[in-house]
């Protein structure tokens, strides 16, 4: 069998289990000739268990208009906002604290994000997540 040639790789962040063919899905995949409804059905089925979070997806599009996709871990700011119980981060992160997370919560987020981070160990991953928390105005206790 001949190898399929990759024509594009598209990265999109979508709500888990609730994607629709409307933008951003349609505008990202439509120009490549992908059947957006087929992608939406497969994505929603794969992410149904994680409903309520944002799940990034990397869609690989082949020259025969077929596709495959890889689900990533939720973005760090989404996980930090959930852990801190806040709607959004602080716009003035050095002056106003939006919320707090414990060191244990930080470690749990780092463990979740580990496959997608470029960190060698859990401590390095925790430092990356702590930096994101600091830029959002979320204080790390412990």
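Sequence proposed for the structure above (142 residues):
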């Amino acid at each position: 069998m001949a190898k399929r040639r990759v024509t594009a790789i598209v990265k999109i962040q979508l709500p888990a289990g609730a994607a629709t063919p409307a933008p951003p899905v349609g505008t990202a995949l439509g120009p490549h000739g992908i059947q957006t409804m087929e992608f939406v059905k497969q994505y929603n089925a794969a992410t149904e268990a994680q409903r309520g979070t944002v799940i990034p997806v990397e869609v690989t599009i082949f020259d025969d208009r077929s596709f495959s996709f890889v689900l990533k871990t939720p973005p760090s700011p989404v996980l930090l906002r959930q852990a801190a119980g806040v709607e959004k981060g602080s716009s003035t992160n050095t002056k106003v604290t939006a919320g707090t997370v414990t060191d244990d919560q930080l470690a749990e987020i780092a463990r979740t994000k580990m496959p997608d981070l470029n960190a060698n160990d859990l401590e390095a991953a925790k430092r990356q997540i702590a930096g994101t928390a600091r830029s959002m105005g979320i204080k790390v206790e412990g």
